[in-house]
Give the backbone structure.
Amino acid sequence: MRTSRPARIGQYTALLAYLVFLAFPFLWLLSTAFKPPRELGSLHPTWIPKDPTLDNFRQAFGEQPLLQAALNSLIAALGAAVIAVLIATPMAYVVARRRTRLARAVTGWVVVSQAFPFVLLIIPLFLVLKNLGLINSVPGLVLVYVVWALPFALWMLAGYVRAVPPELEEAAAVDGAGRVRTLVSVTAPLLAPGIVATGLFAFITAWNEFFFALVLLKTPEKQTLPVVLTHFIGAEGVADLGPLAAAAFLATLPSLVVFAVIQRRITGGMLTGAVKS
């Protein structure tokens, strides 16, 4: 059924408005990061800085340990994404292929667990990390991020596994391949787009996470980037706007770069997971 010209114009207009809505905060952040103090306090702000400067970036790096915080965030996010995917992939295979009550119960629990608020989880997680001696440590934060990302990764990968035709695994079994060999040699390559998509979402979630890092990390040199960004806000709630915008702009770059590099694989993974055989 063909869409009429007014309907197409309306669709493109709505899409353009949505893109502007999404791009506005980032573009304004970029503009603010290069403005000198006198333009930041102007009653008539402009999109393009009249006198662009890099002083905000110099001040941001001079006031706070941004490089160390970025390294801590990278270790926590990358470690959580890799571990969550490694654990969730075989679990998702079992949940998707075993049509048992236990598998359905696991799926239901995964869905329900996503509704738990952060505050409900922080006390038991804090006690567990305390017993393990992992309070105020990046490995402890990685463990928390794995626990938080695992249900979503399991639910997401299970959909991709269901999209893989079981006939391929049956053919591999006829050729003498066992369960592990079938998972590694047959199913895993077909799940590559979904694994990358799941890992990316786990990475971005951990990279941007603030609450767990604020509660669990107290030493300044171990804090992550979202926590360090709050140091640009004074005790009275007044933000050092220029350095804050510069630091926040740098904090968004890794997510944008990672997403841009593997965009095609992400799109393929989403389409694969959305279609069932």
About this structure: Confidence is low (pLDDT under 50) at residues 269-277. The radius of gyration is 23 Å. The chain has 14 helices and no strands. The longest helix spans residues 66-97.
